[in-house]
Write a structure and sequence with these properties.
Keywords: Membrane, Transmembrane, Transmembrane helix. This is MFS transporter, CP family, cyanate transporter. By secondary structure, the chain is mostly helical. The longest helix is centred in the C-terminal third of the chain and has 33 residues.
Length: 387
């Protein structure tokens, strides 16, 4: 009974951690007009907030495994959420300097927790890897959509302003910290022994295949989130409906996010699932060449489910393709670091292309090219091998 109760509390902690890993980012975008007006900053400086988060992710993903090795995964994840909470508070206390400092702290905190969650629950709940991966990715995706949707109502309808709206997410973070306290003493015995067996993931062909697979799905997701509304508006859709389309794509992704991991771990190989998702992307993106609202929403249904499935596949492969805990942590850091670097570059590269050629079809071709990368590196990554 005590073991069952402890496991339930652990799962609750994982749920609370997962829902805090995207809210501080997703809540910023809708509030940028308020932030820009209040602080008197340019569009470029305001837009850099998202870029700063992604670049912070990319850099500190590499250090997270070392922090986990030194502190133990339970304590390191607590530190990550603590830094995230401090960052959320700091960024609303003053001007642009504190806004950037707080944003950087939130990025550092998120990436420490994000990288170490996968090796943590792989070690603590090895029989529930599929379920835990589903909870992690679903919690992130669901509350990213929630944060995007209610940030402005919190600021305007409840009169909290942009500062109060951003700071309000700290309540969930404090709750996560309190619930996570029992895991602070859960430093896994034998973890130090893994140091001798841990592989150099940077020299592994399989690790690079998983990394480039993750990079492709990250580029597609962040490029769509950044540019989809503008493309739909340019084609005649109202701004409100374009926003609904983006929210719909994110919400429908929860189907793929939640159900795919449990299915994947039952398979000897995951290549066929990756191929099916890749074909879905090809069909969905190609349908966007047709300028019709009904077809656009049908395409976004396919793309959205694929997007959710892709994130879950990437996280699941990190667990399935590594044997030792430290190797899992290093692979998680490598995969997410490169993924976020590409995610930061994707929207920028397309933005430059749009300025040069002023043709929205380039966005679709760009996404189709990334889908080819998704398939080419996903198929070998899905084979039954270990690093």
């Amino acid at each position: 009974m005590q073991k069952s109760s402890g496991q339930a509390f652990l799962i609750l902690g994982i749920i609370l951690i997962s829902i805090n890993l995207r809210t501080s980012i997703a809540s910023v975008g809708p509030l940028i007009p308020f932030i820009r007006e209040d602080l008197g900053i340019s569009n470029g400086l305001a837009g850099f907030l998202t870029t700063l988060s992604l670049l912070t992710f990319a850099v500190f993903s590499l250090f997270a495994p070392s922090i986990g090795k030194r502190l133990g995964h339970g304590q390191a994840i607590f530190l990550g959420i603590f830094l995230l909470t401090i960052g959320v508070i700091v960024r609303v206390l003053g001007g642009i300097e504190l806004l950037y400092l707080g944003t950087a702290l939130t990025g550092i905190g998120i990436v420490i927790a994000n990288v170490l969650m996968i090796p943590f629950f792989k070690a603590r709940l090895p029989e529930k890897i599929g379920l835990m991966t589903a909870i992690l990715s679903t919690g992130m995706s669901l509350f990213a959509a929630v944060a995007s949707g209610i940030s402005v109502p919190l600021a305007v309808d409840l009169g909290l302003g942009w500062r109060g709206s951003l700071a309000s997410w700290g309540v969930l973070m404090v709750l996560a910290l309190v619930v996570w306290i029992p895991q602070m003493s859960s430093r896994k015995s034998g973890f130090q022994g893994d140091l001798l067996k841990a592989k150099n993931v940077w020299k592994s062909k399989l690790a690079w295949q998983i990394t480039l697979f993750m990079g492709a799905q990250s580029v597609m997701y962040f490029t769509m989130v950044t540019w989809l509304p503008d493309m739909l508006i340019a084609r005649g859709m109202s701004p409100v409906k374009a926003g609904v389309a983006l929210s719909y794509m994110q919400l429908i992704s929860l189907i793929g996010t939640f159900f795919v991991p449990n299915y994947l771990i039952r398979l000897k190989e995951q290549s066929n699932v990756i191929l099916i998702v890749g074909i879905g992307y090809l069909v969905g993106y190609s349908a966007l060449f047709i300028q019709n609202e009904l077809i656009a929403f049908a395409a976004l249904t396919i793309i959205g489910i694929g997007s959710g499935a892709s994130l879950s596949i990437a996280y699941t492969l990190i667990s399935l393709r590594s044997a030792e805990d430290l190797t899992t942590a290093k692979l998680s850091g490598m995969v997410q670091s490169a993924g976020y670097i590409l995610a930061a570059l994707g929207p920028l590269i397309f933005g430059i292309s749009l300025d040069l050629f002023d043709n929205w079809n380039i966005l679709i071709w760009f996404l189709l090219i990334m889908t080819v990368q998704f398939i080419l590196f996903g198929l070998p990554a899905g084979r039954n091998r270990k690093i």
